[in-house]
Structures are given as C-alpha cells and as structure tokens.
Design goal:
Blueprint lengths: L7 H7 L3 H16 L14 H10 L2 H25 L16 H17 L4 H18 L1 H22 L17 H22 L1
Helix pairs in contact: 4-5, 4-8, 5-6, 5-8, 6-7
C-alpha cells in the first residue's frame, strides 16, 4: 500500500477539535514514515485511540527493541543472582551489569532495520549511528560515572566514621555503565533477537 496523506475532509470537519486534529496528524505521519514495513497493518476499529494501541503493539521495530531489552534484563538478573547467590529483582529494571540492555535494544533496532530496508537505507543509517553512540557511551561516560560513584560513596563512609558531623544519607548509583564485555554481550543478544523477530515473529 502506498504512502498515505492526511485526509482533507477529515481536517476540515475536525479543525475545531485540537486534540483529535493533532492525534490524526501524528497517526498519518507515523503511517507515512513506516509505510515500507513488512508487517501487515492491524485491523482498524474506527476508534483512533484503539487503533493507536494496536499499531503500537504490532510495530515490529518497537517490539523488537523492547523484547531485546527484556531478554537482556532477565539474563542480567539471572547472572547477578548466580554470582551473588541472591535474587535482586531491582536488576530487572536496573542499569549496568551483564549483558547491557541498552546495547541489546539499539543493536536489535539497527539489525531489524537492515533486514527490513537494507543496509543502504536511511532507516538503517540512523539506527546504526544511534547504536554506535549508545554503545560507546555505555563504555565511556557511564562506566566512568559508576567508578566515580564507588569512590565518592567510600569517601562519604570514611568521613562519617571520622567525624561527629554526619552527612546526609546519600548513596550514589554504582551500577551505571558497562565494561566492553558487557556491551559486546548486549550486542550479541540484540543481534540474535532481531533475527528471531524478523524470521519467526514478523
């Protein structure tokens, strides 16, 4: 099906309703942008809000990215439990650790875009650049931030032990960034999940 434009009759009839007008504009832009998607569009009910929900949950790019993040977070929780002999459910939504959920998400999105549109497409170019930036940032700034948090937390503990004046109870997040191995593991998770979603789901 070709790219769809906004229906002029609808605009004239609903110009006074700002919310519906905006939603319809966004909805048609979304359909225009992803007109080349290989998945079949969801059957529309005539209710724009329900149609939005259906389109969101049948969007192969969004679902591939989210499912990759979910797989990475579950693996991270399991690995953390095996290493520390304690189940910490906060790791399901936490940063840092093995594998990198951020790296898995953006890698899956880039690979799925390559499989769908080809490596010569602007969709792949944008997602590949995004993946490169996110993975590099996880190993750079975010990793150093976690190291600094460890040092600062230790300094606060020592200060509180040596002085009578107690500082406010503040503990900085230490699980922030990732080591190169953790990022590589996240990339592999995203790569594998993108192929599974492309060939077996969508």
């Amino acid at each position: 099906m070709g790219r769809e434009s906004v229906n002029s009759d609808f605009l004239r009839k609903n110009r006074g309703n700002g919310v519906v007008f905006f939603l319809r504009m966004w909805y048609n832009y979304y359909k225009y942008l992803f007109a080349g998607s290989r998945s079949k569009p969801a059957e529309h009910t005539g209710n724009i809000y329900m149609d939005w929900l259906k389109d969101i949950f049948t969007n192969p790019f969004l679902m591939t990215g989210l499912s990759s993040w979910t797989v990475a977070q579950v693996l991270k929780t399991i690995i953390h439990c095996l290493i520390n002999k304690k189940l910490d459910l906060h790791r399901l939504i936490g940063d840092g650790g093995m594998p990198s959920g951020h790296s898995a998400t953006v890698t899956a999105l880039a690979i799925f875009s390559a499989l769908t549109y080809g490596v010569g497409s602007f969709q792949f170019a944008v997602t590949a650049i995004l993946a490169t930036i996110v993975c590099h940032d996880a190993m750079g700034v975010r990793l150093e931030t976690g190291k600094q948090a460890v040092v600062l937390n230790e300094m606060l503990s020592i200060f509180n032990l040596l002085t009578t004046e107690q500082l406010p109870e503040v503990k900085l997040k230490e699980f922030v960034g990732h080591t190169p191995i953790q990022v590589l593991a996240g990339i592999l998770v995203g790569f594998a999940n993108a192929f599974v979603m492309y060939y077996f789901v969508f």
